Amino acid sequence: MKIIQFFSQLFAFCTLPTTTLVFISYLAIFIAIFITDQLPAVLKHQRGVSLNRAYEDLHHIASRPHPYNSHVNDAVCSYILSHLSPLAQTYPYVELADDLVSNGSWAGAYGVYFEGTNILLKILGTEEQYANEGGVLLSAHYDSVSTAPGATDDGMGVASLIQLSEYFAKNRPKRTVVVNINNGEEDWLNGAHAFLQHPWSNIPNTFLNLEGASSGSRPLLFRVTSPAPLNAFLHKHVPHPHANVLSSDAFARGVIHSGTDFSIYTEQKMQGLNLAFYKGWSRYHMKYDAIPYMEGQERSLWAMMEAALGAAHVLADSGEEKKDAAASVYFDLFTVTLIILSLPTLQTLNIITLVLGPIVLILLTAITHIASRESPHPHNSAPHRTGSVFRDTWEWFRDRGWLRGFWVRAKFWVALVVACGMLVGLVVGFVQLNPFIVYSHPYWVLLSTFSLSLLSIFLVLNLPILPHGLVLPEQQKQATLLQTYIFTWILLVSATVGVGRGLGGGYWVTIWHILIFIACVLGWTEDMLKVHGTRSQQVDDIRIPGALDEDADESTPLIRHRAREVERIKEEGEEEGAVGWWILQFLLVVPIPVILMGHIANMLLDAMCQTLADGGSPGSVYAAAALLGLLLAIPLAPFSFKFHYGFMAFLALVCVCTTAYLWLVFPFSIGMPLKVFFQQRVELPSFSSSSLSKDVAPEKVVTALTGALFYLRMIVPRIPSSKGKKVDCFPEKMKLGLYTCEWESGALPSPGSWNSSFDGESIINTSLLTPSNPWLESTISRTSSGARISLRGTNTRSCRIYSSPERKITKYTVHGSAGMQDGYDVPSNGVDNVRLWGREWGRGWVVDVESAGDNNGEGEVEGKVACEWAEYESGSVDHGMVDDGFVSGAEGGSRSGGEGGRIPALEEVLTFLPEWAVVSKSADGLVEVLSSFKL
């Protein structure tokens, strides 16, 4: 009997079992999420690829910054060619193209002329039908930004593709595989555009793009076009899949503004996948995007290689594609499996659930109500009089049945409103007191919002407004389950509207709603079977005639004995609860929704928490953390009536201490540095004749740092060149939410003097360059329809032409160009600048431009010419790679040699920045030299 009683109490809906199950469940779920979020172990048998060779390649590729406009970029190109050339020489079905002919112009927000230097490898498939169409494209980019060695962005992608090239060369696939290791992605996807100019771009109709926007860890399937390529990411092909449709939804709706080559390929009607690193944004595009700072080191590289190999193998060896245009909903669970569901199926399921669910529950409610009316009710005696008018009035008021029914149904919504109000206050506190703390402590912020949400819900649901015992705990649980069902029904309506607009990120609402529905059905069954427990507080309303009366009759001893028993039960806290039912409901309502939301929270916090340094809205990030905390707490609402007060007191202490710490601690450190953006601007005198004078000297040399204003005011005074200078700070138009602080500095940049590989003569008279102006030269003349601008910069491959704000460029033609790329013409309202990129150093460009308002070559021509530089001394340190064959080992050697550029202003900033801040590039060029013109 005692054993039965022990197990009855152990599994009863009582305080201790409920609190223990809640604690263990949440602890186990989040431990499992965080453990499975770690990098997988490297396999001993690596499926035909070599991690060691790839890791060695990565050391060469990412030894120093190598943007398109740098000579190190040429050396990286030569190194990659030296590793792919033997494949073309060994296998007759493998062809290598060092693409130095694909030129093109395209326009969007601005105009571009670009000369490509992509590295292309074609592996002819075994099936002839895929020789010229139906192939697979594998893509990554070998350029980095000027302030980062590019280990993650995109060195690991390139190292992976070198291994995949070797794998498919040795294991010939069915479909033709085209490998595009392109150059110029960081300067707004120019390499992918250049690939479209090459004949091989017509072969593939499916692609896999490898990217990196962080510092390693697990790569995420960021974007997917259709179910056919998505199936290549199933667990049987990719052992550790990491994917969620929410990331695709964010890109589709413009929540994420950055772009990858994925968008260029999809605009060409290709179907494919975008696999990218996303954690550790604080190291993105800065010196910490280097091998020593990669999270997981070679294990990160293996995670990329393993996923890319698995998916690419399926894409390259698959048969006829299924013609399925329907979008998919997908998400992974603990990196063990990938769940895939078509969007129409999800929509159908949502509609059925929205319609049938309420009908079933209404019928069950009616049946339960009829059954309760037919069952006998216990007789309640008259309320006890205390002698206090106010207390007796309150007792009478709260004993009314209408009040009981109203509060039982309303308190869940009151709890939601209170929780939301408290979270709004918490978010305002974060934004006002320490807006960047989520940058370094995202999960502490989540703990703060979750604990506050659960506390708010618990306190409201357990307010002593009604006399204890009028509603049994099981009945309160069922009533709250029903209100939660209504809440998820409302969410499901919104999710269904989203599905109609092509958004599948609300899949978790569908699952949660269905589980709540099943739990409600179980609750009605429990109620009809009268499986109710009791609790000690119910004895408050046991009416005992004469128990407290002064005038006792012959029954007084018995009644007083019963009263003493009531007091004993209240003091000892004995309680009973229905056994079994609540556990089944708990397992339905809590673990699965919390697992789904936990995975989403893990991904979103890692992806969003450090976007504030790029101008992200603090309010949006904290609002997302607050919403996640609330959604993680709501599943516990039906069971909160049995939470132990000691546990909730501990949770309150955690909430207060965590929030206080987060509001007070400094948000940045060496490991989590603040990103600031650098650019130096050299302004030459304007010219009104046909050419820029050879004797001009700079009018103004400005150093500019962009970032969060509060911290910029701490950083700028530490830079020696700013001392005693007027520092102007103003909102940055190109990075909304950030400010730019600039001051005049005397440190002039040097373009360097590099031996060009161009064999001909410059298209511009080089005598225009003098010691006072070693940077750029330009000549301008009128044409019948606009102006002809010749432009050249010393030791650079990047220049620009800016229009006046009133007369934007409506057409431009670069001499030697193949013309505008199909589908990328200049917008009807024109562009305000044209960016020129050339593969040869120091050659220059001749551009014919037409502007809005040109009148047969008459009137003023006004604008600016500029050139960009991205090389600096500390970023050009070789780290011994030349001796290891970095350049000399490449076939044909490096494409150039000589003296590199210098940017003393950048070196100064790098030297004197506080340890908790780090530099990134503000634009394509770290230095821009410009001059205005008017004819």
What characteristics describe this protein?
935 residues; alpha+beta; 11-stranded mixed β-sheet; 7-stranded mixed β-sheet; 23 helices; 39% helix; globular
Question: How many individual helices?
Answer: 23
Largest sheet: 11 strands, mixed
The beta-strand count equals 26
The share of residues in extended strands comes to 15-25%
Instruction: Write down the oligomeric state.
Output: single chain
Large-scale geometry: globular
What's the gyration radius in Å? 34 Å
Distance between the termini: 104 Å
Fraction of residues in helices? 25-40%
Structural class: alpha+beta
Describe the structure.
The protein is of the alpha+beta class and 935 residues long. It contains 23 helices and 26 strands. Strands 2, 3, 12, 13, 14, 15, 19, 21, 23, 25 and 26 form an 11-stranded mixed beta sheet that branches. The protein has a 7-stranded mixed beta sheet with strand order 1-4-6-5-7-9-8, sandwiched between helices. Strands 17-18-22-20 form a 4-stranded antiparallel beta sheet, with no helix packed on it. A hairpin with a 3-residue loop joins strand 10 and strand 11 (337-342). The termini are far apart.
